[in-house]
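Figure 6 in text form: structure in, sequence out.
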């Protein structure tokens, strides 16, 4: 009876997510909750900019006796900011830059990405000694580092004593999806403020992960790699697994990962056949997000069997005109409708065809000048035809770097 009055250790954990990522966040939360200790109190904070009532209710239903879930709307703090992300990153990834503003009462806090599965009590991660460092983190082993290094060496707009030349080796570059954060030092060195300024000034290859590496260089404690086992060694680069001297340690970690991190644009909910995806599905099946995940990813699986939108050449959330509405164009349009990856604002087609479910204007090439767009994606299969279309577009004054064509055959 007396033990009930003993104060429990508080473990604060921060996630960030937008509306469409809630089901995957829900699975991550469920896996965390299934591995907690009753000896601790876990305070979960989910940074967002206005989740729907239904999804908020579902997340709150995951609460237990010693796990609270708090939904923190950060709209006022990020509203009006032009946060540049790129690749497959959403703006929600930058919300962690607000941690010192939102949680000054904590000395230390955990930040976790939403595309993870937790297989061990995160209290152990929280209790990791990171000394007088800003972050405790795991070295990023699974990324084409050459491009990252070029990006990191550009420090324009970065007025900070934590200068990038303190990263003596690319092996000192960390993955920012799993972080133990010293909140006082994070605030003292203005990591959040400077990081947000940098993201609004230019686009970095891996968004705020690059920025956090730049600002904290030399003040990072590298921790046990099992706390952030990236599965990109299995998905590789262009689908080819990559194991080299930098990445070979992961072969040991995947035998008993504490946290599986589904890095890259390839995710287990779309690729259950890849090794380590089984951890995601094991927990997903026990949540009320399971059916939604299945419906989102597999009901229209035929959309992905033959043609594939050029994801790698088009940044997310950008305005796109789709050129061509034949078989390829129809598939591209449905893929984007399903994923919300970017914003198709018009479809250009000489035939002026009418789509039954078309919700955007159908235009001719001379109409393009009246639209504000970021890319024109040529949706045809044959390269010869794509070159002719590119030439026609350039003759109207459209810059070549705004015109995208890749062989669409999967």
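Output sequence:
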């Amino acid at each position: 009876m007396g033990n009930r009055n003993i104060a429990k250790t508080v473990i604060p954990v921060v996630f960030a997510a937008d509306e469409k990522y809630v089901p995957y966040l829900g699975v991550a939360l469920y896996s965390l909750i299934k591995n907690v200790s009753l000896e601790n109190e876990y305070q979960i904070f989910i940074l967002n900019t206005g989740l729907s009532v239904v999804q908020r209710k579902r997340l709150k239903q995951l609460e237990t006796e010693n796990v609270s879930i708090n939904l923190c709307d950060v709209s006022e703090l990020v509203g009006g900011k032009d946060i540049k992300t790129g690749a497959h990153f959403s703006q929600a990834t930058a919300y962690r830059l607000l941690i010192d503003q939102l949680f000054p009462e904590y000395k230390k806090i955990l930040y976790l990405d939403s595309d993870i599965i937790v297989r061990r009590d995160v209290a152990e991660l929280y209790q990791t000694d990171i000394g007088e460092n800003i972050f405790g983190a795991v070295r990023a082993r699974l990324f084409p580092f050459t491009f990252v290094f070029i990006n990191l060496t550009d420090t324009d707009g970065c007025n900070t004593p934590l200068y990038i030349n303190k990263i003596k080796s690319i092996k000192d570059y960390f993955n920012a999806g799993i972080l133990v954060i010293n909140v006082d030092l994070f605030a003292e060195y203005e990591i959040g403020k400077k990081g947000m300024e940098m993201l609004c000034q230019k686009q970095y290859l891996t968004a705020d992960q690059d920025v956090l590496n730049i600002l904290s260089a030399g003040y990072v404690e590298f921790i046990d790699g099992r706390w952030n086992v990236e599965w990109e060694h299995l998905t590789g680069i262009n689908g080819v697994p990559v194991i080299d001297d930098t990445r070979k340690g992961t072969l040991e970690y995947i035998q008993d990962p504490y946290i599986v991190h589904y890095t890259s644009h390839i995710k287990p909910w779309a690729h259950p056949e890849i090794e380590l995806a089984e951890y995601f599905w094991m927990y997903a099946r026990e949540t009320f997000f399971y059916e939604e995940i299945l419906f989102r990813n597999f009901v229209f699986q035929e959309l992905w069997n033959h043609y594939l939108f050029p994801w790698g050449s088009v940044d997310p959330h950008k305005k796109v005109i789709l050129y061509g509405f034949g078989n390829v164009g129809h598939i591209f349009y449905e893929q984007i409708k399903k994923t919300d990856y970017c914003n198709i604002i018009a479809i250009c087609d000489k035939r002026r065809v009418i789509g039954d479910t078309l919700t955007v204007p159908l235009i001719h090439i001379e109409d393009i000048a009246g639209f504000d767009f970021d890319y024109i994606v040529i949706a045809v299969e044959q390269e010869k035809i794509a070159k002719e279309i590119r030439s026609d577009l350039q003759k109207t004054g459209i810059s070549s770097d705004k015109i995208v064509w890749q062989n669409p055959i999967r």
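Caption detail: The chain is about 30% helix and 20% strand.
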